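Weekly sync notes, structure subgroup
Attendees: PM, AL, DS (notes)

Item 1: joint prediction request from the bench team. They want all two components modeled as one assembly rather than separately. Inputs as received:
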Amino acid sequence: MLEIKDLYAGFDGTEIIKGISLSVKKGEIHAVMGPNGSGKSTLAKILSGHPAYEAMSGEILFDGKNLLDMDAEERSLAGIFMGFQYPVEVPGVNNAEFLRMAHNARRIKAGEEEIDPLDFDDLLSEKMNTLGMEKKYKERNLNDGFSGGEKKKNEILQMAILEPQLSILDETDSGLDIDALRVVSEGVNKLRNENNALILITHYQRLLDYINPDFVHVLSGGKIVKSGDKSLALELESQGYDWVTTVN
Amino acid sequence: MSDTLVESTAESAFLDLHKKLLEQGTSSFSELQQLSLQRFEMLGFPHSKHEMYTYLNTKELVESAFTISCRSEKVSEDFVVSHIYPGCENHCLVFVDGILNYDLSRLKGVSANLTPIAEAVSVDKELKKHLTETADNENDVFAALSAAFCGEGLVFKLADKEKISEPVQVLFVSTGGNHAMYTPRLVWQLGKLSELKVIAKFVGVEGGYFVNGIQDWLLAEGAGVSFTQVQADNFDSWHFSKTRVQLKKNSRFHSSNASFGTQLTRHHYDVRLQEEGAELKLNGVSVLDGREQVHNFIRIHHEAPQCVSHQYFKNVINDHARSSFDGTVIVAEGAQLTSSDQLINNLMLSNEGHADNKPNLMIFADDVKCTHGATIGQIDEEQWFYLQTRGLSARTAKELLTRSFAKSIIETIEFPEVVKDLNGTLLKKLEIHNV
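Output from the run, pasted for the record:
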């Protein structure tokens, strides 16, 4: 589904990612871990198409297509979802209305008719029930005045509505208390299936207590310095990142 | 401030016109007109550095040779009906070319509230005194000009405790096409504990006119007003308005203004919170494109303790459009426990647009809470990117953000039909012109 080949990338001319290769297949969950400044968020930004970040060399293929040639809108419509570390607040844009617009953009791309507002309301209610979310999320403006936990829940709600093939969740666990972490993780688990894939970018192991990854990659100095299964995350938790960076 | 005494050709032309009008009658109201004319002569048209006109160029306006019409042109009923909001069909005052048209108006239940100013001042000495003082102290030359030429001004009076629950709409139609100046004038006189909701809308049939109106709001103790204005004149017209508000004890005046802009639109508010507990809310939004302009000039006088005023203005500026905000809150000595805030946000969508802001506070009391702020910015790049990561095109995302910026003011309007109208017309401008 996703092939990252020897990617060098950065911000404002500074190279932060220094040769990453990663292959993600349908049904897989990959956790990308690493200390501060290792390049985790830069990788997320590059995958989402943020205009301030640039790939210096290498390539990223999504379903065989060159992802780096696509802008953020095209990537979303192709089936990629980016769950932000700090979802922005957009006052004045109603959450439900925005979700309907995003859902319709995908339908139009697929050559389908726009969804009837009432049908969408039913769909939204259903997804919110699945995620155990309160009705207030419909009426409020997009992330406006939301707490950190509410913003992350709202990201997962968007993910549920857009049904992406590949989701990249950047530090979704940051700023969450234990209860919110559980709700968000349960939401993510419910959305899993054999046709989609997930990249979890996280600093701490605790998210992986709730979401079980197939692969764990450790990023350091802009490179993947170690890959393994879930046990690698537990090892990191007990020994710290120094263990990996020293070993390598 | 009144520093231009040289009479220009344009001023002479207006003075000649006025002489002709005065020959037609000498009512009490004509005394007020005479006073206003004297103020006009004294003030003179502003030069480019005049304090009240720093951000707008009135040269083309004052050099235009306007005619004054003593009667209104015909306007089709269909045109009028298309601008009456649902729910206001029974209470609508239709002014055509500045003069109330009784045939087109629907005054069910409110006709007794209406009196021509000339008649009202002949029986109400207090009102006469107030209007005389106002005319004598007028410092805005265009308001003086309007008052000097106002033919049939009206007083809309509510008795003590009188409440009109349905909104009253005032439709100001300018027929245009003849380079005329129209000078509608209304005095709203609210008795103690009375309540009124008013929607005023300005529209034009053809352009080329100058609508230069005045509204006075006199609120007695405990009176409440909700006032919404929609300025939707033709682009090639000029729109000047002066709104004077006088608030007594515990009265409240909530006002929202939505402006489409013209080649030169200027709103001048002069509000006096005269007794304790008075409350003012003044909101405004404009969506401007092409070479449209909207300028707000606001003076809020806190003259008594424990009064509250809120001002919140937003402008969307595209292409070569211009806006300005010159607002001062003056807290008088002794007006303790005043609470006042003022915020102006401008969203610039082009490099050629222009926005000037001059928020100002003058505080002569020591126990007050006053804030002011002004921003001029562009579309937030992170918000824009965020929406695109959800599959919205760059254009749709930008349009959504722009609409949301303006909507935060539009949604404060308490009349759903006006909100619906503005969503479909004012905000539609953003789509038409490919934001």
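Discussion: Residues 9-432 of chain B form one domain.
Action: AL to compare against the crosslinking data before next sync.
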